């Protein structure tokens, strides 16, 4: 199907762009009559969800907030087991990356645990390595962080969902923002996988539509450790700005750029490498560099972050220093549990069939923002519309969220980032 039209509802220079994909969702069929639905009596539902999140590899910095989001959602869901009859078990697993390929042993192990869904991976390229294996087993794959547009049209038997918006959105915001900063020429150093090349295309479209020119965009392959040729190719074109479109390869690329005289204010990052570099670079290295990632800032969901931090401490986990994709992971688990409750089933296909309606994608339903409140609506015979911490979510009929937030961040002298204020 055709991708729905992008609507930008705020200017990137304001520091946050809230974006909506216009209606591509289909109405979920229902019996519409004047008779109120009968209350549901919750049965015994032993729901098992696996995780394939990055405990190792080049996105390992995303693992702690994502796993914390999953665990926090599980704790709240299981506080309500007596009322719902649903008990949630999590089987933890490591996605690894395209170099160590931990997923090759972890995914079969998770499927062997009779999971209904697997939350992960964070990397689009990694998810594409095992999506056929997961959906072929009749299990839902639900990523909190995949942004490649490849998933929008992927043949997934209706079993793939994500809470992170597609790179159509992030590319639009970042490309326009770089142009709005006054840059006329742009170079990019691009990871050669579904995430990197897809996002590069959307940045290019937006930047050139705004009157700029992308003058160089060399790629490198996963597992590469030297990037001097890519840096040289970009700098030979003398661009006004450079997008570092990588994962943790940025730790090597940034010093190369700095050594060649590139100022931090010329550098732009994306969600794959927008990280805390305070322990990696000398003070001031990144001061003035900017970047984007999907989802709310911690300040925009401060009450949730505060509660998450309390849970993390009580659960004996290391304190979080980054919250990237934590809200999306939390929302993924809540949506899966609510869909299982509505379906009164732990079958993957049965749960998947309810996810669009539970998210509000059918256009019907009573808005609710916690598992408990949504469960009460379902058990009362109503239709719940879960609005998440990361966004209202609202799935279209291919499992993509139709609403999302892309925030812009700026690095300070300590090489950590905060919300950009203009």
What does this structure look like?
The structure is a single chain. With 422 residues, the protein is of the alpha/beta class. It folds into two domains: 15-24 and 37-164 and 302-406, Response regulator (Rossmann fold), CATH 3.40.50; 168-293 and 407-419, Rossmann fold, CATH 3.40.50.2300. It has helices spanning 63-78, 81-84, 103-111, 124-136, 167-180, 194-209, 228-235, 250-259, 302-314, 326-343, 348-358, 371-379, and strands spanning 6-8, 16-21, 45-52, 86-91, 117-120, 140-143, 160-162, 185-191, 213-216, 219-220, 241-245, 267-269, 290-294, 366-368, 384-386, 403-411, 417-419. The longest helix has 18 residues, at 326-343. It is elongated and about 65 Å long. The model is unreliable at 1-15 and 18-37 (pLDDT under 50).
Q: What about the largest sheet?
A: 10 strands, mixed
Q: Taking all residues together, what is the mean pLDDT? A: 91
Low-confidence stretches: 1-15, 18-37
Order of helices and strands: EEEHHEHEHEEHEHEEHEHEEHHHEHEEE
User: What is the domain tally?
Assistant: 2
What proportion strand? Answer: 15-25%
CATH architecture of the largest domain: 3-Layer(aba) Sandwich
- CATH class identity of the largest domain: Alpha Beta
- According to DSSP, the number of beta strands is 17
Keywords:
422 residues, alpha/beta, Rossmann fold, ten-stranded mixed sheet, five-stranded parallel sheet
């Amino acid at each position: 199907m055709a991708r729905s039209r992008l609507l930008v509802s705020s200017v990137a220079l304001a520091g946050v762009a809230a974006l909506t994909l216009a209606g591509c969702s289909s109405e979920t069929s229902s019996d519409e009559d004047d008779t109120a639905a009968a209350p549901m009596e919750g049965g015994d539902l032993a729901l098992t969800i696996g995780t394939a999140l990055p405990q190792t590899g080049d996105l390992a910095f995303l693992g702690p907030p994502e796993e914390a989001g999953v665990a926090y959602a599980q704790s709240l869901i299981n506080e309500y087991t007596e009322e719902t009859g649903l008990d949630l078990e999590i089987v933890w697993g490591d996605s690894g990356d395209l170099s160590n390929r931990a997923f090759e042993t972890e995914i079969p192990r998770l499927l062997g645990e009779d999971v209904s869904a697997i939350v992960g991976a964070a990397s689009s390229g990694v998810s594409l390595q095992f999506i056929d294996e997961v959906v072929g087993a009749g299990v839902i794959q639900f990523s909190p962080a995949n942004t490649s547009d490849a998933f929008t049209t992927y043949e997934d038997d209706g079993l793939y969902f994500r809470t992170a918006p597609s790179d159509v959105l992030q590319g639009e915001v970042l490309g326009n923002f770089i142009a709005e900063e006054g840059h006329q020429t742009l170079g990019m150093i691009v990871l050669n996988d579904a995430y990197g090349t897809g996002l590069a295309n959307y940045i290019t479209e937006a930047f050139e539509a705004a009157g700029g020119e992308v003058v160089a965009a060399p790629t490198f392959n996963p597992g590469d450790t030297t990037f001097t040729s890519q840096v040289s190719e970009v700098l030979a074109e003398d661009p006004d700005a450079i997008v570092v479109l990588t994962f943790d390869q940025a730790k090597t690329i940034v010093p190369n750029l700095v050594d060649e005289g590139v100022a931090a204010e010329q550098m732009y990052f994306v969600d794959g490498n927008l990280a805390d570099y305070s322990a990696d670079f000398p003070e001031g290295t990144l001061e003035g560099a900017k970047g984007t990632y999907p989802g709310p800032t911690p300040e925009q969901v401060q009450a949730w972050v505060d509660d998450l931090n309390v849970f993390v401490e009580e659960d004996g986990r290391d304190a979080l220093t980054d919250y990237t994709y934590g809200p999306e992971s939390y929302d993924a688990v809540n949506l899966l549990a609510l869909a299982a409750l509505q379906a009164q089933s732990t079958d993957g296909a049965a749960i998947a069939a309810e996810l669009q309606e539970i998210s509000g994608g059918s256009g019907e339903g009573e808005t609710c923002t916690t598992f408990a409140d949504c469960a009460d609506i379902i058990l009362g015979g109503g239709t719940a519309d879960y609005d998440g911490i990361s966004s209202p979510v609202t799935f279209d009929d291919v499992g993509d969220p139709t609403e999302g937030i892309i925030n812009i961040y700026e690095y300070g002298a300590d090489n950590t980032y905060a919300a950009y204020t203009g």
